[in-house]
Write a structure and sequence with these properties.
Layout: E1 2-4, E2 7-12, H1 14-17, E3 24-30, E4 34-39, E5 44-49, E6 56-66, E7 73-78, E8 82-88, E9 92-93, E10 105-116, E11 119-136, E12 139-143, H2 151-154, E13 161-163, E14 169-177, E15 182-186, H3 192-205
Parallel strand pairs: 1-9
Antiparallel strand pairs: 1-2, 2-6, 3-4, 5-6, 7-8, 10-11, 11-12, 12-15, 13-14, 14-15
Length: 206
């Protein structure tokens, strides 16, 4: 989530959110009642058009304005003993940046998601010490500090924010490249103007 110009945005990647379905944010698990959800509504998607050729390129990035008070819980629950820990999701307050070769970067994602006894079950993947090695058309490349373990290891991490050592978001995970031990991420900074347009549109509607 990104707080920007008075609006709270939920950012992700298009290859996930363009799938059919009713997209929602998991707010919390309520014992005896199940999982409480908040529906996001329609996502916004982007494309770039080459003026000379007229060719269109879809951008693997999506965003939607959500309730400014939206603050889901990250809960760790033991099926036998109940709630273990819970923390509030943190919104980034306009803290976006571009990566540099000198920086170190990392991300946290969740894989092997599924449901068991009304609970959403995942495994956590934390990957740090990434180094930035380049950018191409808004897609940043980050070198893993180890051999890429295969796509199955990171499957489900798409859309996870890649952050720098100051907690600023520099990219959202798009995919991996096993041959080069790389993780690729789309740059929110490159498409910040789209959020500006959405803010202005909301102001006009009000």
């Amino acid at each position: 989530m990104l707080d920007y110009r008075g609006q709270r945005f939920l950012m992700s990647v298009a290859h996930v959110t363009d799938k059919p379905g009713n997209w929602a944010v998991e707010l919390e698990y309520e014992p005896g009642r199940g999982v409480r959800l908040w529906q996001t509504g329609a996502q916004n998607f982007l494309a770039e058009i080459e003026v000379d050729s007229g060719k269109t390129r879809e951008i693997d990035y999506s965003y939607v304005i959500v309730d400014p008070k939206l603050s889901p819980l990250r809960q760790v629950i033991d099926q036998e003993n109940g709630l273990v820990t819970e923390t509030r999701a943190r919104a980034i307050h306009a803290e976006l940046a571009n990566p540099t070769p000198e920086g170190r970067y990392g991300f946290c994602g969740y894989v092997r998601s599924g449901r068991e006894n009304h609970l959403f079950v995942t495994e956590e993947r934390i990957c740090d010490a990434l180094t930035w090695v380049g950018e191409d058309n808004g897609i940043h490349s980050f070198k893993l500090p180890f051999k890429h373990p295969g796509h199955a290891y990171f499957k489900g991490c798409s859309g996870a924010p890649i952050i720098d050592q100051d907690g600023r978001v520099v990219a959202l995970v798009v995919r991996g490249v096993e041959a080069g031990d790389l993780v690729l991420g789309v740059s929110p900074m490159r498409y910040l103007a789209a959020l500006d347009i959405e803010v202005e549109r909301q102001g006009t509607a009000e």
